Amino acid sequence: MGFAGLRVLSLESRRAAEMAVLIEKNGGLATVAPSMREVPLADNPEAFAFFDRLRAGDFELVILLTGVGTRALDKVLSTVWPEGALAAELRKLPVVTRGPKPMAVLREWGVPAAAMAPEPNTWREVMAVMAGRPERRIAVQEYGKPNLHLMGALEAFGATVTAVPVYQWALPEDTEPLRAAARGIAAGAFDAVLLTTSIQLTHLLSMAKEEGVDVRAGLGRMVVASIGPTTSEALEEIGLKADMEPSHPKMGILVKEAGEQAAAILEGKR
Q: Helix 229-237 vs helix 198-211: angle between axes, to the nearest 10 degrees?
């Protein structure tokens, strides 16, 4: 049964076509409005400064937040340093990963990990695996925007933290689908929205402001399905609450479980 004909909006970008298919297979009428594109930082002096300090032994521990960001950092450094230079330095100190994706990169590179934060892979799980560790000079590979919660928690932990920005999320080159989505939310054109990262919400609000529409009230009338706690926290920051999170933070599970719960959630809002 799934969504049973409900109008479902997704702001997915990299896997937009796959998301549309999943929604339709689960009985929804899909609208996918890509909300972002991943762009390497063209000028990234922080990455080279980090690597110079890493080689000098300035850090006691490195935290890797994403697999994509770890590879991007290596790619940036390889424009100056030999291939494998980052991996060689990471073997010299403890490395903590936020979940399995950066862990997979380390395995590929032959770099042992000191710990991996488990699902749902938020800053809280990172801090949980940091409990009891002695290291206090820490570098954190960022993933599109600063993780202020993690940085603050590490500083409260007594750490001196160096952020290493590697890539950022930009608006899509064609913003009209996202603008149309913002107008549609404000006009009540959708029954549910599926959010798979907090940046989608940031960019949606940006386009809504430019279009002169308020999407908050519209989102409040819809089923808002969040991939996990980080995205749910972004909703809370604008005064909204996620109606559901999947049992595991995976796109397919999000769509399936949102479809199973959407009708009842929507009924409760009417």
A: 30
Query: Using 50, 70 and 90 to split pLDDT, how confident is the model at 233?
Result: confident
The CATH topology of domain 40-169 is Rossmann fold (3.40.50)
For the chain, residues classed under CATH 3.40.50.10090 are 7-36+173-269, 40-169
Given a cut of 70, is residue 53 above it in pLDDT?
yes
3-state secondary structure 136-197: CEEEEECCECCCHHHHHHHHHCCCEEEEECCEEEECCCCCHHHHHHHHHHHHCCCCEEEECC
Name residue 213's amino acid: V
What average pLDDT is seen over the chain? Answer: 94
Residues 66 and 235: their CA atoms lie apart, in Å, by: 22
Q: Which fold has domain 7-36+173-269?
A: Rossmann fold (3.40.50)
